[in-house]
Design a protein that fits this description.
Blueprint (H helix, E strand, L loop, with lengths): L12 H13 L12 E6 L5 H12 L3 E6 L7 E2 L12 E2 H10 L3 E5 L7 H5 L2 H9 L4 E3 L7 H14 L6 E6 L9 H11 L4 E5 L8 H4 L3 E2 L3 H5 L4 E5 L23 H4 L6 E3 L12 H4 L6 H23 L1
Parallel strand pairs: 1-2, 1-5, 3-4, 5-6, 7-8, 7-10, 8-9, 10-11
Helix pairs in contact: 1-12, 2-12, 6-7, 6-12
Bound molecules: N-acetyl-L-norvaline (AN0) and phosphoric acid mono(formamide)ester.
Length: 318
């Protein structure tokens, strides 16, 4: 594998899952693979899980890692071509990217949707420049439209916890005070569409996602109806995708918060969230602290998804 930005890049998903479970059994079986190889992780946005789990995954493979927080200590970067750089930005991304490529073998990039231009976000302008100009394999650590390392970890978690072959998985929108990207829900939908699970998306009117990601999911506007018989409840907030409200919070309807009463409608479902989560906005304390909450094992699987992806990229380097 060269680059990893979406589920298709993994090739055979069942095979990738087998590799992930193989790694989980003994994460130190491939320490030679990454010897003398350097991973550079570039963050344009904050992170806790991605930063730690990806770095740990790289260390498990014997790699060295360098972390660059673009907004802390690096030169302020211009991303638009053709701009007269007489403002506060000292360096252009078009030099910065190939320079970064000089010091590493693999690059991970986190660059969220900026909500300034739907086109720039949905063409993955920043991530694609890394792919084009770094000269290195590139993987997404959450880009503008997808968060594939998260979705892969989510899939691993569902496979571990499912009690039936084809569980009912419900992704529900939940309220949040700030505008959040669609990357996590887009990506989760894309990965669920690659399985044979029963997959339902529920959200208020106006929060429709890009149909490209919704795929064959059933969209149900009545949250309670959607949750009936669910085996997994995957909560997430996202800002509106549809014009003219792209990138906007159009409501903060707290009747959509996942609480005990709603979980009672499900088939004793497991509760999932990618984290970070705002308690009593997205989910109540009671639900996230309940035995059905699997948010911590879900986060733990981020190390496994990252290691599986890095292993496949390293194998492609040989
Ligand atoms: C980000 C998001 O919703 O995309 C990262 C989630 C993994 N969340 C926040 O910015 C709070
Ligand atoms: N879930 C996730 O990607 O978390 P971070 O933003 O903390 O990396």
């Amino acid at each position: 594998m060269r680059n990893f930005t979406c589920v298709q890049d993994l090739g055979d998903l069942k095979q990738a899952l087998r590799e992930a479970f193989e790694i989980k059994k003994d994460r130190f079986q491939f320490t030679e693979l990454g010897k003398n190889k350097t991973l550079l992780m570039v963050f344009f946005n904050s992170s806790l899980r991605t930063r730690l789990s990806t770095q740990k995954a790289a260390m498990n493979l014997g790699m060295n890692t360098i972390v660059l927080d673009v907004n802390q200590g690096a030169w302020k970067l211009e991303t638009e071509r053709g701009v007269i750089m007489d403002g506060d930005k000292s360096e252009h991304l078009l030099e910065a990217i190939p320079v970064m490529g000089c010091y590493c073998d693999v690059i991970g990039v986190r660059s969220f949707a900026r909500f300034e231009s739907k086109e720039d976000d949905y063409t993955e302008k920043i991530l694609n420049q890394f792919i084009q100009y770094s000269g290195r394999p590139v993987f997404s650590m959450e880009a503008a439209t997808r968060h594939p390392l998260q979705s892969f970890a989510d899939l691993i978690t569902i496979e571990e916890y499912k009690k039936t072959e084809r569980p009912k998985v419900v992704m529900t929108w939940a309220p949040h005070p700030k505008a959040l990207p669609q990357a996590v829900p887009n990506s989760f939908a894309e990965w669920m569409n690659a399985t044979d699970y029963e997959f339902v998306i529920t959200h208020p009117e106006g929060y429709e996602l890009d149909p490209k990601f919704v795929g064959h999911a059933k969209v149900e506007y009545d949250q309670k109806k959607a949750l009936e018989g669910a085996d997994f409840v995957y909560a997430k907030n996202w800002a509106a995708y549809k014009d003219p409200n792209y990138g906007k919070v159009i409501n903060m309807d707290r009747s959509w918060t996942v609480d005990t009463e709603k979980m009672a409608l499900t088939n004793n479902a497991y509760f999932m969230h990618c984290l970070p989560v705002r308690r009593n906005m997205i989910v109540t304390d009671d639900v996230i602290e309940s035995p059905q909450s699997i948010v911590i094992p879900e986060a733990a699987n981020r190390e496994i998804s990252a290691q599986t992806v890095l292993k496949k990229i390293l194998e492609g380097l040989r």
